[in-house]
Amino acid sequence: MERDLGLYKQLKQCQTMSEIAKCIPNFIYDRAAELILLYWCLVPVLSMTYSYITKTDADLLIYLSVIGSGILGIYLIILRVLKEDVLQSLRNQSYLIKHLSQLTLFFMLIWSLFSCFLARDKYHAFIGDVYSHEGFLTYMAYAGFYGSAVFLNNKNIFKKVLNLFCWVGTVLSFLTILQYYGINIRAFSGYMKLAATFHNTNHFGYYLTLTILCSGAFFLVAKTLKKQISYLLQFIVMVCALIFNNTFGSYLGVLGGSLIMIIIFYCCKGQLKIKFFVPFMTLIMISLVINFTSGIVNHNFEVLKQDTVEILKETEQSAYAGSGRWQLWTNAVKFTMERPLFGYGPDNLDYNYAQVGINMLKPHNEYLQHSATLGLPALIFYLISLVNLYIHGIKHKHELDSLVIISFCVISGYLISAFVGNTKFYVTPYFMILLALATKVKLEKEEANV
Q1: Which of 372, 352, 368, 433 is nearest to 112 (CA)?
Q2: Phi/psi zone of residue 375: left (φ > 0), alpha (ψ -120 to 50 degrees), beta?
């Protein structure tokens, strides 16, 4: 109580925003970031509750949660920047090099603003399409999530956030499995079957890519048998849901991510343990069992093989390879070359695709999405950020906190699935949080009070 009164008196004496920001203790910033991140992880549960009551989808609720939480994150970033004199530190070359990943993402955001001003449909560019909801406003919200996590250095908070993330994913997956076997799930009312609380099965697949790899990596860092069993069960349930969901791009992301996970843990721990192979081998075993009864996995690999042959032979059917993605990709490259500097603007490709007879808004490839909508410089900023992130991780590989190692495992799988996926307002914030966590080396176990 006395501390609160003392803080109130100090705040009353402040005359500038900078003084107010410096006066606020770090634990308050940490608590604010914690609330934003935990709330976002709980949004799928709120969506289920809403759908259960109304029997309709909760897309608007989710979108408002993204914007509300993200904008709060932006305010938090502004105060943090003022508190830590970031603008002053930018004059220091070593600071710029150390924070290159964050700065290049900021440049990408600024570049996207220019792209919005030059877009054909400026309303969609700034506010977003009625289905996609990914205009500049949503990009700002993504930045809010990223910044909330970037300035957070409390290990206990990150652990709570990631554990909640995995548990919510497990609940969604368990209900999806029940739905696959014919049980009506009222909480998924208004949604496509096997899509949980996401508008599309693909989008749920993107989400599961993150949660599955997160639980798998948690299994590898867990120190007790009880926790190892818990994380492995989460992993098993979510992998089953992903296979039933039948989003093959996400399955490949998890498959590749599980292999990369072995490499990452080997590099960071300096030795190769049999334990490191458990998530990958579990994925293979589950795939074989489910494939034996349904043939889902084998069918997807056969289609992939056939599509690859069609593309290499350049047949007429090659345009429809990858569930029609090949024609989306080739046209996205063409769109990029037409406006290489600033692209066509966020959520503005529907008109371009319509001109070539395709009813689609995005190219189903995040990298081509960035180049075609925001321009090649924006894609380059993004790639520089990612490359620098991995260089930084490799440089400090023996010092990385276990949660930072987990974040690298998860984002690696996601970046593989991104070759056949899109950004989406109810999935991308999770990726941004994990991307921010990967910029760190060590995390503090206790809260800083100053």
Answers
A1: 372
A2: left
Q: How many other C-beta atoms can be found within 10 angstroms of the C-beta atom of residue 153?
A: 18
Region 385-391 average pLDDT: 97
Band of residue 21 on the pLDDT scale cut at 50, 70, 90 = confident
For residue 291, give both structure tokens: 């494939």
Residue 8 exposure: Cα atoms within 13 Å on the Cβ side: 5
State both tokens at 338: 């037409």
Instruction: Tell which residue, 73, 140, 136, 145, has the closest CA to residue 432.
Output: 145
Is residue 16 very low, low, confident or very high in pLDDT (cuts 50, 70, 90)? confident
Token code pair at residue 7: 């803080």
For the chain, what is the HEC assignment? CHHHHHHHHHHHHCCCHHHHHHHCCHHHHHHHHHHHHHHHHHHHHHHHHHHHHHCCCCHHHHHHHHHHHHHHHHHHHHHHHHHCCHHHHCCCHHHHHHCHHHHHHHHHHHHHHHHHHCCCCHHHHHCCCCCCCCCHHHHHHHHHHHHHHHCCCEHHHHHHHHHHHHHHHHHHHHHHHHHHCCCCCHHHCCCCCCCCCCCCHHHHHHHHHHHHHHHHHHHHHCCCHHHHHHHHHHHHHHHHHHHHHCCHHHHHHHHHHHHHHHHHHHHHHCCCCHHHHHHHHHHHHHHHHHHHHHCHHHHHHHHHHHHHHHHHHCCHHHHHCCCCHHHHHHHHHHHHHHCCCCCCCCCCHHHHHHHCCCCCCCCCCHHHHHHHHHCHHHHHHHHHHHHHHHHHHHHCCCCCCHHHHHHHHHHHHHHHHHHHCCCCCCCHHHHHHHHHHCCCCCCECCCCCC
Nearest to 100 by CA among 400, 390, 342: 390
Whether 180 and 60 have beta carbons less than 8 Å apart is answered as: no
Over residues 26-46, the pLDDT tens digits come to: 899 999 999 999 999 999 999
